[in-house]
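Lab manual, section 2.4: Encoding a predicted structure.

Procedure: take the sequence of the chain (291 residues), apply the prediction step described in section 2.3, and record the output as C-alpha cells. A sample record is shown.
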Amino acid sequence: MTVRGGLPPGPGGGDEIPVCLTSGNPYKRLRHFRHLRYPSRGARRSDNPMPDAIILIPARLASTRLPGKPLADLHGAPMIVHVLRRAEAARIGDVVVATDSEAIAAAVEKAGGRAVMTRSDHVSGSDRVYEALEALDPEHCVDIVVNVQGDLPTINPADIRAALKPLDDAQVDIATLAAVITDSAERTNPNVVKVSGPQIAPGHFQAKNFTRKNATGAGPHYHHIGLYAYRRTALERFVKLPPSANEQREKLEQLRALDAGMRIDVTVVKSVPLGVDTPEDLERTRKLLGG
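Recorded output:
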C-alpha cells in the first residue's frame, strides 16, 4: 500500500504527520503526503458537532466500454481531476483518490491532489474504498465515508453534501441520492436503476428496493444515483457480508445491505449527473462542460 500526493511537507518541515493524534501512524514516512489529521474522539470541540468525514474516489483503468476513462481528456484535464475538484468543492472533508493505477495516481498528484494505491483485485468500488480508508485512518477517527464514483465529472458539489443529510438520523446506516424520473424512456431502461420506498420528509425517503425492472404505477419514480455516504461501521460491515441472492440477480450491490437489514435513506436532488461509460458519454460530457 502506498499513499501519494502533491502537497508540501508539514509544518514541522518533514513528512511525519500522523493521521490521528491519538497514536502513531505506520504510513507517516511516505514522501510528499500530508496525512489526514483528526483530533482524538475525546478532544473534539463541542462547538463543532459535525462528524469527521472523508471523500474517497475509487478509480481504475480497466473498462470494457471505455478503456482508460479516468484519464480521458476533458478540456485539458483528466476526468478523474474533474471529479476530484467537484468533491473538494463540496467542502465535506479530505478528498483522496483510491486507485490501483500508477498513471491515475500520477495524474492526481500532478493536479495537486492525493491518491492512495490499492490492490488490483477488488470486485467493487466499495471494497477499494474500504482498503483505502483503513490505510489512511488506521486509528478509526473518521466517522463518515463518502464514496464518489470516479466517472461522474459533472456531479454537483451541493449534491455530494446533500447525501450526508439522512445520516443526521442515527438509525440510518447508508445514505444515497436519487432524482425524479422525468424522461419516460428511463422507466423501462434496465440501465437506469430505480429506487423506491416510503417518504420520511419532503425530498427524503427510506429505500426499500433497488431494481433494474420497469417502473410501474403512478409514481413519482426515482432514478438512483450511485453515490454513497456510509457510517464507517456500516461500510466495514457491508464489505464483510457475502453477496446476497437479490444482489446477484439484479447485479446491484446495494441490495446486499438491504437484505442484511441495513437502512439506506435517500436524498432527492434536482438532476442526475452524467456518468461516463461510453465514448458517446464522453463526447456529451465534453460538450456539457464546454458550454
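Check your result against the sample. The longest helix spans residues 125-136.
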